[in-house]
Amino acid sequence: MKFTTTKNNLFKALNEINKVIPLRTTLPILNCVLIKNQKQKITLIATDLEQTIISELDGKILKDGETALPCGRFLEIVSALPNEELEIETQEDNETKINSSKGVYKITGKEPSEYPAVPEREKKQEITLEGHELLEIINATLYATSKDDLKPALCGIYLNIKEKDITAVATDGHRLVKYNKKIENNNPEGSIIIPGKFFNILKNGINIKEKIIINISENHLDIKQKQNCLITRIIKESFPDFNSVIPEELNIKATIKAEDVIKGLKRVSIFSNKSTKQILIDFNQNELTISTEDKETRSSAKEHLECEYNNENITIAYNAQFLKEVLEHINSPEIEIFLSGPLTAAVFKPKKEIATAQHTALLMPLRRQK
Questions:
Q1: pLDDT < 50 stretches in the chain
Q2: By C-alpha distance, which of 275, 312, 304 is closest to 288?
Q3: Hey, how many other C-beta atoms are within 10 angstroms of the C-beta on 186?
Q4: Which of 100, 130, 288, 304 has the fewest CB atoms below 10 angstroms from its CB?
Q5: Max Cα–Cα distance, the chain, nearest Å
Q6: pTM score, two decimals?
Q7: Pick the CATH number of 2-114 from 3.40.50.1010, 3.30.360.10, 3.20.20.140, 3.10.150.10
Q8: Residue 64 contacts residue 1 (beta carbons within 8 Å)
Q9: What is the mean pLDDT of the chain?
Q10: Is domain 246-363 in CATH 3.10.150.10, yes or no?
């Protein structure tokens, strides 16, 4: 295999590919990027067996072939080279030479035949979203997905589509986000759970002015972005009945200024216990108090803020990080909080909903540490 390309083109492709290279794996071949020269195309492929990225590289093919190179080291040396034309050549023993004006660098790769095959996809359905719509959905929900691989359904975002309406839901068991969005394009009815990691990879490359076409097959879906094709396995699990979890009648309401409370949480949480991150939110007549105490380090903090509240005094314990993230992802200067007691879930909504979206977040309290 032999080809030439520029440092910038190769670095850009490797940087994108590197997003799916697993940090830890029992299969060393997954630490590699598969490079193929065939059919007049230079193709780079990386996978963690759940997500796959295929990137087409601009360059000149001098000899067909393929190799699998350690992605980390390959990316490291390419990033350190000046922007100029590079020549990449692989010998029969999978030793690859990178030729530049600064020198020659040799990397020993692995047998390309060991590399997992790209998942076969036979398109059964297509979802069309505007770039800004998909980005809005991701930004509203992704933070609430679970990181626990033992609960696969909670590691993804559930999408329920009905023509020009889409409902996106994410939960990790401690918090839940439901985001209803009216969209521009008609789509077939259906529901699907898409891994959060896939959206993490996708979101930075979304062009908000372009249409995004999601091709769905039996077990996978893919999205094409410029020279990249992103493929993910669909999560085939039952998603929790989220509508039954969100309380409908909550008789206590507080209205807060989001920015002031977020800043207060950041300051007060510095003094919270590092494992529980517990803070107390105390609602009193038109006043909100954020406080914490860590007996292990003998530290504490307290702040008083204004809010709209005309009910009995109530004190609730929350994980400071979870509460801060809920408030940060509701795009509104003022947020309404609906409560029923110190041990039941609170519901958060923007004070003024936009015409095309309804945003509801739910957060479970902590049991107060004595």
A1: none
A2: 304
A3: 9
A4: 304
A5: 78
A6: 0.91
A7: 3.10.150.10
A8: yes
A9: 94
A10: yes
